[in-house]
Design a protein that fits this description.
The chain contains 10 helices and 16 strands. With 301 residues, the protein is of the alpha/beta class. The chain is globular, with a radius of gyration of 18 Å. The structure holds flavin mononucleotide (FMN).
């Protein structure tokens, strides 16, 4: 194994750096910059059974050290992606994590079933509202979240990652998901936030509130990965504010085996590639491997 290689749920990744869902679309816009197969994996935009038009504009606004977004899960629906983007991604030789969501557990499962031939892993976005169960996000309701994972596990042979929300308690949810057979976790999704327009005296975002991402949330991500690692033996895909090799290594120390780069890609489309190069240089100098760093902050001195 080379310095950056890592095995995650039986899949060998050439390096641990993947794209974060919703920040890289399906990769088409980036394929002329670098080969997508050079990344650890591409996580697709959140994909639902039916097309979703998304939230009213404005959908994005900057914040100190980050951004707020309220895209409203806009996507073309699974059938459209099966026609073009998913086969195309496979042709690129990329490893693919398909991010799925739905209004109810059965919808998540149906999307997972259909995308499975093209997916190395399925990532279940539990931050969307449980439309038929009180509108709380699935991620805030251990039983509803567990039902999603059970249904998705029944629908696919692929390993299933549950994407956790930082806006509620994570450990009781993680415990329920483990009982439901989840294979691994990804975290964190965005933190809820809001900004105001002083002229209009109204929220800036069309949806009023949105999700905070970028460097501002990195310490939250490091803490939650650290907490979860202490309570689970399932592997973790960590994310939140990663823009450099040093950021990725912080998450590895906390317990992440893979890391995702999200918001950083908006200001620099080479960001994921830059993190891979930075890790290679840093670890080569020290004659260490990425694997040496995973969870290393938990080992006694
Ligand atoms: C514009 C935008 C769209 C996103 N869409 C999704 C999505 O569809 N599904 C999902 O699970 N996470 C989504 N996320 C959350 C990211 O995948 C990631 O968890 C979060 O942004 C933290 O990482 P970052 O700080 O590197 O961006 C989105 C984030 C942004 C900024």
């Amino acid at each position: 194994m080379n310095r950056l290689e890592v095995e995650f749920l039986g899949i060998r990744f050439p390096n641990p750096v993947v794209t974060a869902s919703g920040t890289f679309n399906y990769g088409l816009e980036y394929a002329h910059l670098y080969p997508l197969s050079a990344l650890g994996a591409i996580t697709t935009k959140g994909t639902s059974l039916e097309p979703i038009a998304g939230a009213p504009t404005p959908r994005i606004t900057e914040t100190p050290m980050g951004m707020l977004n309220a895209i409203g899960l806009e996507n073309k629906g699974v059938e459209a992606y099966l026609q073009h983007e998913l086969p195309w991604l496979k042709e690129q030789g990329a490893r693919v994590i398909v991010n799925v969501f739905g209004d109810r557990a059965g919808d998540f499962a149906e999307v997972a079933r259909r995308v499975s031939p093209y997916a190395n892993l399925i990532e279940v976005n539990l931050s969307c509202p449980n439309v038929h169960g009180g509108r709380l996000p699935f991620a805030h309701d251990p039983q509803a979240a567990a039902e999603v994972v059970r249904r998705v596990k029944d629908a696919t042979e692929r390993p299933v990652l549950a994407k956790l929300s930082p806006n509620g308690p994570i450990l009781p949810v993680a415990e329920a998901l483990e009982a439901a057979g989840v294979d691994g976790f990804s975290l964190i999704n965005t933190l809820l936030g809001m900004r105001m327009d002083l002229d209009k005296k109204r929220p800036i975002l069309g949806n009023a509130s949105g999700g905070l991402s970028g460097p501002a949330i990195k310490p939250v991500a490091v803490r939650l990965v650290y907490e979860l690692y202490r309570h689970t033996d399932r592997p973790i895909l960590g994310m939140g504010g990663v823009a450099s090799a040093a950021d990725a290594l912080e998450l590895a120390l906390a317990g992440a085996s893979l890391v995702a780069v999200g918001t950083a890609t908006f200001s620099n489309p080479y960001a994921p590639y830059k993190v891979i190069k930075g890790l290679d240089e840093y670890l080569s100098e020290r004659e260490e491997t990425w694997r040496d760093w995973i969870g290393a902050a938990h080992t006694p001195n």
